[in-house]
Amino acid sequence: MRHAYAGAAVHVDASPERVFALVTDWPRHDEWMFLTTARATGEDTVEAFTGIGRLGFLDTMTITRWNPPSEIRMRHTGTLIRGTGVIRVRPDGDGSRVVWAEELELPFGRAGRALWPLARPVVNALARHSLRTLAALLSQPPGNGAPARNVS
């Protein structure tokens, strides 16, 4: 199976602990991840729905690495989205650098491989948009929308 790579990075004016807490607060994904709601379905499993109303897709994931506050790695196990995703958080000056990277198994065979060059810029732009929204949310002091703790 051919793999595709996508990702984005952003500086966030918040500590790695605050960033990691929000990134892993699944019910709050709708506040920063584009058109996505998420929830824990088990101790190490998460599902996220991306779309509007019933039009969209379900992304099921298994957490394969949990290293607060620096890294979470997921294995996408759904029918449409398969592969590995990682979010890394590193200290960066007075804040953090957040890197979101995906190694995806392209669906739809030859058609998926042919369409990826058109889809990749859109996927990367949506990842950048989501991370910028995350950064804006975390630029608020704790208690004004940014979490001080992790809620599963």
UniProtKB/TrEMBL annotation:
Q: Which InterPro entries match?
A: Polyketide_cyclase/dehydratase, START-like_dom_sf
Q: Which CDD domains match?
A: SRPBCC (cd07812)
Superkingdom classification of source:
Bacteria
Q: Give the signal peptide, or none.
A: none
Short name of any one Pfam family annotated for the protein:
Polyketide_cyc2
Name of the protein described by the UniProt record: Polyketide cyclase
Species, as recorded: Nonomuraea cavernae
